[in-house]
UniProtKB/TrEMBL annotation:
UniProt KW keywords: c-di-GMP, Membrane, Transmembrane, Transmembrane helix
Species this protein is from: Methylobacter tundripaludum
Biological process annotations from GO: cellular response to nitric oxide
Domain EAL: 24-278
GO MF, any single term: cyclic-guanylate-specific phosphodiesterase activity
Name under which the protein is recorded: cyclic-guanylate-specific phosphodiesterase
Amino acid sequence: QAKRSGRNAIRFFDPATHAAMEARIALEAELRRALPENQFKLYYQMQVNNLGAVFGAEALLRWLHPERGMVSPAQFIPLAEDTGLIVPIGLWVLETACRQLKAWESDPGLSCLHLAVNVSACQFHQADFVDQVSTLLTEIAIDPDKLKLELTETLVLGDIDDTIFKMQALKKIGVRFSIDDFGTGYSSLAYLTQLPLDQLKIDQSFVRNVAVKPTDAVIVQTIIGMATNLGIEVIAEGVETEEQRTFLESNGCFTYQGFLFGKPVPVEEFESALNVKIAAKLST
Ligand code: C2E
Ligand code: MG
Ligand code: MG
Ligand code: MG
């Protein structure tokens, strides 16, 4: 019997695989409790233009686990996607981001800030996704064009008809769209022109070596040229050095996000970093 089922049977009893499976089951049970037990938090990473002005932020999810400490999204987002837990978690992210925009609205120093929010494929392709977003915007009563949804190329191409339909519906309300990690997927000019896009976000893997690796420099220049010709904004993520920023600026990319400007931080820290910048501007 064991012989006939071959390699698979042996792999099933592999203790390493078994341990990995148990760890995954444990993590899944903990992830299920994370939302009702308020263990999620949004961090904010500033987005700046070439004049140094902060025009917005990307909201990045953090899981403050009671024993494991801070669990990175790279470790739990894939599991949340596999189990469908990303749907309620993603809704919590959207709601929290909208409430943050609302809170900023009443502060003259912060009222023009925009927020970018990451959306997973299975969340976006839910039948009621458009309803959920529009209900949130109405209930919380914020300016819809301050909300930018970040979609990946894989999400967009997964079900292109559903994508176009939903993007157009949300676009009508005023919501904006960015393609995240741009350049890492199977991009095609044909679909890009069909989508109501506001922004392309150059993936950090190209930004990292832009000043030292000629092929990455060409990719970045091509993406900037493409966005410019399509009349949409282009932003670079993962900008860590002045050298990278200078390359981007001299090639026509005028908005940036990365450790050079600020790491993702809790909202209090984000606001005080902004106040420091405003104070510095006023004193010069
Ligand atoms: P992403 O949307 O591409 O976010 C950018 C990631 O790059 C963030 O990692 C950010 O902390 C990191 N980063 C920013 N600037 C720099 C830099 O200068 N250098 C380097 N080395 N890294 C930089 P993070 O926060 O760990 O998030 C990882 C990924 O998890 C995100 O990639 C996104 O795909 C996903 N994610 C985060 N929050 C959410 C969420 O609320 N919903 C969904 N569906 N996915 C999320
Ligand atoms: Mg993103
Ligand atoms: Mg990205
Ligand atoms: Mg990324």
